[in-house]
Amino acid sequence: MYKIIILFLLISISGFGQQNKEIEKPIHNLFLAMKNTDPELMKTVFTENAILQTITKDGAVKNDSIEDFITSVSKFPKGDLEERIIIEAVHTDGNLASVFTPYSFYLKGKFSHCGANSFQLVKQNNEWKIQYIIDTRRKDHCQEIK
């Protein structure tokens, strides 16, 4: 009986881990695309009508265009942009996933700023895509991610 319960738990944990890897894939690909200055890969991670926002120091919400973001990133030499993240939480319900990631951002190998990203992803055509990103940015009280 115990063997059956343990087997069931292992299968459940394994399936959950695989689901998280699928959800996390577009997030990791976004930062890989930034680091490698790969606009084509970057385009594949977003839904058609994705939203990108930043919370400013005074609490205002600034909207950015995904197209402008991709164009801006594409102007940097390969390796100049690196965002290191820690995935702290993944929550799912059907075709919706929410992922929270503190980060440290490096420009040309030097620490620039830190903050947190909140991603909302949707599963479309059996593939997870980023629908919404909102982030914070600060230079103080940062714990660099190695």
TrEMBL record:
<dbReference type="InterPro" id="IPR032710">
    <property type="entry name" value="NTF2-like_dom_sf"/>
</dbReference>
<dbReference type="Pfam" id="PF12893">
    <property type="entry name" value="Lumazine_bd_2"/>
</dbReference>
<dbReference type="InterPro" id="IPR039437">
    <property type="entry name" value="FrzH/put_lumazine-bd"/>
</dbReference>
<protein>
    <submittedName>
        <fullName>DUF4440 domain-containing protein</fullName>
    </submittedName>
</protein>
